[in-house]
Amino acid sequence: MRTAAKIISILFHPLLLTSYLVLILGYYFPSMLMIAPDRLNSILVFVFCFTFVLPAVNILMFKQFGTISNYTMTAQKERIIPFVAISLIYVVTAFLFYYKLPFSQNFNNLILIIAAMVVVSTLITFFQKVSVHSLAIWGGIGILLPLNKAVEQNYLLWPTAIAIVAAGAVMSSRLILHAHTPRQILVGSITGFLIGFSGIIIFFQQ
Asked: How many angstroms separate the CA atoms of 132 and 114, rounded?
């Protein structure tokens, strides 16, 4: 049971959220991203490097320097410095996409919403430990749900349904691993969903 919980936690690591969303939207709702299909793979690699590889390297460095005692960062205080560093990476990435690499406005807005999730999770971490796994996956659901109404056909229905099922598995896995309390998972879930949902609503009303 714990092995399955660990695998689920790895597969749905918060740093993978951006890559998953770009992949899902690029395949099922390409008009939303406004990116040509032949450019999707190269952009996905670019996104993966900036939103997963760079933050992951930062975590590895913090572990080597002794800033954190383990990669899961179980203690709240250990999370603060790495989270601040990751927030800076995401904010700079959002800035680069907006002003230096303008692939499309909707794509840039998506990156901005995700950067907001990272920054908010960091701010919360200054005061209490929160489940970033839950925040990330429910943030993704918050983004996908309103987009279902924007699609002419039900292309996003199954990806959204699978994401909701995955969210249940992720929350259960965090409890099984004793990584978080139910309250920490609830706070993360509500926070992520509100940011993702409200972000899409705001940008699509412009």
From this structure: 12
Domain of residue 100, residue span: 2-204
Give this prediction's pTM.
Answer: 0.92
Q: Which residues contact 14 (CB under 8 A, 6 or more apart)?
A: 132, 133, 135, 136
Q: What is the mean pLDDT of residues 7-29?
A: 93
Query: For the chain, what is the domain count?
Result: 1
The separation between the first and the last C-alpha atoms of the chain, rounded to the nearest angstrom, is: 46
- Provide the b/e sequence for 181-191 (b: ≥16 CB within 10 Å): eeebbebbbeb
Residue 152 pLDDT exceeds 60: yes
Distance CA 189, CA 164 (A): 11
CA distances from 98 to 95, 101, 154 (A): 5, 6, 30
Copy the structure tokens of residue 54: 């760079």
Q: What is the DSSP letter of 74?
A: -
CA-based torsion, 34, 86, 194, 6: positive or negative: positive
